[in-house]
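User: Let's play a game. I give you a shape written as tokens, and you guess the letters that built it. Ready? Here's round one.
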């Protein structure tokens, strides 16, 4: 059997990559003699279809007359879907191309052509959507609690050594190279530099500017 593989992490999953998902799927395929035709990966939230470019490419390929694979594999169902509507829409389209859907962590293969397959599909999609709703409720509850106490919402500010940044700039390094060197995002670096320019009196050899991580 030939398969297309899909892996995704949210942009909120700081420091995470799709490598662990791909490693698990490759091992799964190797044990079962499944040929991986292509690996599709995205770094975006499930509902952010605009930036899930590889996912849209995979959907288009799966609906073509000759997709070149018989199955789509994911590490976990919610890597592909967190919405019952999008889940059923995609699988109903795959029904006509005889493509099956496998979630290796959830331990199921969905053949949407059978009544049992449709039942399992609906159940798993409902659970994924419910999990998304519960997460949203917990986040909102935490936000309301912090705001009611007058606290700030978000990550703690990251100290940026402006003197070090200035030294690296004088050595010809770009903002991208400096952000990689310091282990911070480019946007964090930009904010820190702008903040230092607004308060020049505070910048010295040991000065540090607080800047929030995105």
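Assistant: Ready! My guess for every position:
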């Amino acid at each position: 059997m030939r398969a297309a593989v899909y892996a995704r992490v949210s942009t909120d999953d700081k420091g995470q990559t799709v490598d662990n998902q791909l490693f698990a799927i490759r091992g799964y395929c190797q044990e079962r003699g499944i040929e991986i035709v292509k690996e599709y990966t995205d770094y975006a939230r499930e509902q952010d279809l605009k930036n899930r470019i590889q996912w849209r490419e995979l959907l288009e390929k799966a609906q073509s007359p000759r997709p070149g694979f018989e199955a789509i594999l994911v590490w976990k169902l919610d890597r592909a879907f967190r919405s019952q509507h999008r889940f059923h829409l995609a699988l109903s389209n795959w029904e006509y191309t005889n493509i099956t859907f496998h979630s290796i962590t959830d331990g199921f293969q969905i053949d949407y052509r059978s009544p049992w397959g449709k039942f399992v599909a609906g159940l798993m999609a409902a659970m994924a959507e419910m999990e998304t709703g519960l997460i949203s409720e917990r986040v909102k509850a935490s936000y309301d609690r912090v705001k009611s106490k007058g606290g700030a919402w978000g990550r703690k500010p990251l100290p940026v050594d402006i003197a070090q940044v200035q030294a690296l700039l004088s050595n010809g390094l770009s903002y991208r190279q400096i952000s990689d060197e310091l282990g911070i995002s480019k946007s964090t670096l930009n904010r820190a530099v702008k903040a230092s320019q607004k308060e020049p009196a505070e910048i010295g050899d040991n000065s540090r500017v607080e800047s929030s991580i995105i």
